[in-house]
Specification:
- With about 375 residues, the protein is of the alpha/beta class.
- The chain has two domains: about 5-40; about 110-385, Metallo-dependent phosphatases (Purple Acid Phosphatase, chain A, domain 2, 4-Layer Sandwich).
- About 40% of the residues lie in helices and about 15% in strands.
- The strands form two sheets. A six-stranded mixed β-sheet has the order 4-3-2-1-10-11, covered by helices on one side.
- A hairpin with a 3-residue loop joins strand 10 (about 360-370) and strand 11 (about 370-380).
- Helix 1 packs antiparallel against helix 2 and helix 7 packs parallel to helix 8.
- The longest helix is centred in the N-terminal third of the chain and has 47 residues, at about 50-95.
- The protein is elongated and about 140 Å long.
- The protein starts with a helix and ends in a 7-residue tail after the last strand.
Length: about 375
């Protein structure tokens, strides 16, 4: 380190006007040292640790300030772009103001509600281990699902009444409420004999219909009755007087007489005479049937193709605006037909006919006087506790 005396001498010589070169030669130091003494900066030979730390901190601070400044510039640029877009949108909004739409008053048109019931198979059992665990069914489960079916029908009625005037309900009773003993294997697995099943089904219908009459605020209930293939008392399906050769024909007779004896005029039964049962609602002709006469054997197109062929042939004799059927344990719908689901759900029969899996369900829809079949809802019966 240069002695303070030498530093003072350098300062004096600088004051006396000597050149840097002369001063450097006189004291034996570098010209850079003379320059640093001249400028008051500690340089070569006179550095200190504290000075170096101070310089490093100053440089770091300067770098930080530059970084913050660059970030600030980016933010200013982004805000300027947002401001430009806002000014553009403000100008646009003055030109394209949103329309001031008003809520139109609801004109509650009178419509008719439909609920479909079929394929309960109350006397059949489904072992969940046999169908991969996707379904289980027995007498107890069946009664629970049927109770929920009537309750959910009422819920849908009340929901649709918010926009429509509903005073009339049509119930499509499409058959196969029992499995019966039409095959030997069914005798082995059935939980009831066919007469016992008739009594059980009769009680379920009595309870359900009284519930709708008491709670549904309905002026009229039309129950259109069809007989399924499982309730027959013959070994094979017969065409002559086929409805009268079924337990379900007997069931419908008992139901009609029961309500007649009660003096209940709000419910009307359209009892089966042949395979088809017809009802006209507004100007729409509706054809009800169980659906077993559709020739479907598991094709990739599903039931739709053979059903459309059948409808086309049937319409040659008597045209229907809507076919309402069941039997196939799969709920399907189109503009001119409705296929109801089942209460029993997925079973060995569904596997046999290669039906798509679906949870046990029935159908509900609205018939509009002008637009025909409109709002449609499934009545899903396997998730009742979550609803």
């Amino acid at each position: 380190m240069i002695h303070e005396t030498i530093k003072q001498g350098i300062r004096n010589d600088i004051s006396n006007g000597l050149s840097v070169k002369e001063i450097a030669q006189t004291y034996g130091v570098s010209k850079r040292t003379v320059y640093r003494v001249k400028s008051g900066v500690k340089g070569e030979g006179i550095k200190t640790v504290s000075h170096d730390l101070e310089v490093r901190e100053l440089r770091q601070g300067l770098a930080d300030q530059r970084s913050r400044y660059n970030v600030a510039l980016d933010e200013v640029k982004s805000l300027q772009e947002e401001l430009r877009q806002y000014e553009s949108l403000t100008k646009l909004s003055s030109v394209l103001a949103p329309a001031n739409w008003k809520i139109e008053p609801t004109h509650r048109k009178e419509v008719v509600a439909f609920t479909l019931a079929s394929d309960w198979h109350i006397d059949e059992n489904v072992d969940k281990t046999v169908v991969g665990g996707v379904n289980e069914y027995n007498r107890k489960i069946g009664k629970e699902r049927i109770e929920w079916y009537f309750k959910y029908t009422l819920r849908l009625l009340n929901m649709c009444r918010k926009e429509s005037d509903i005073r009339r309900l049509v119930i499509g009773a499409l058959g196969d409420f029992m499995t019966g003993w039409i095959h030997e294997e069914l005798k082995e697995d059935s939980s009831m004999t066919p007469p016992e099943a008739v009594v059980e089904i009769f009680e379920l219908w009595i309870n359900g219909l009284h519930f709708l009459l008491n709670e549904g605020d309905l002026e009229e209930i039309d129950m259109v009755c069809c007989c399924g293939n499982h309730s027959r008392i013959t070994d094979r399906i017969q065409t002559k007087k086929s409805p009268k050769k079924t337990y379900e024909w007997l069931l419908y007779q008992f139901l009609a007489k029961w309500f007649a004896m009660q003096g209940e005029t709000r419910i009307k039964f359209k009892l089966p005479q042949g395979y088809f049962n017809w009802l006209t609602v507004f100007d729409k002709k509706l054809r009800f049937h169980h659906g077993e006469r559709i020739g479907y054997h598991g094709g990739v197109g599903g039931i739709h193709i053979p059903l459309r062929k059948a409808i086309a042939q049937w319409n040659k004799a008597q045209h229907a605006d809507l076919d309402i059927l069941a039997h196939w344990h799969t709920r399907e719908t189109s503009r001119d037909y409705v296929i109801n689901g089942s209460v029993i759900g997925y079973s060995e029969f569904a596997e046999l006919i290669k039906a798509d899996y679906e949870p046990p369900q029935q159908s509900f829809f609205i018939l509009h006087p002008k637009f025909g079949k409109t709002a449609e809802f499934p009545i899903v019966l396997s998730y009742r506790k979550q609803m």
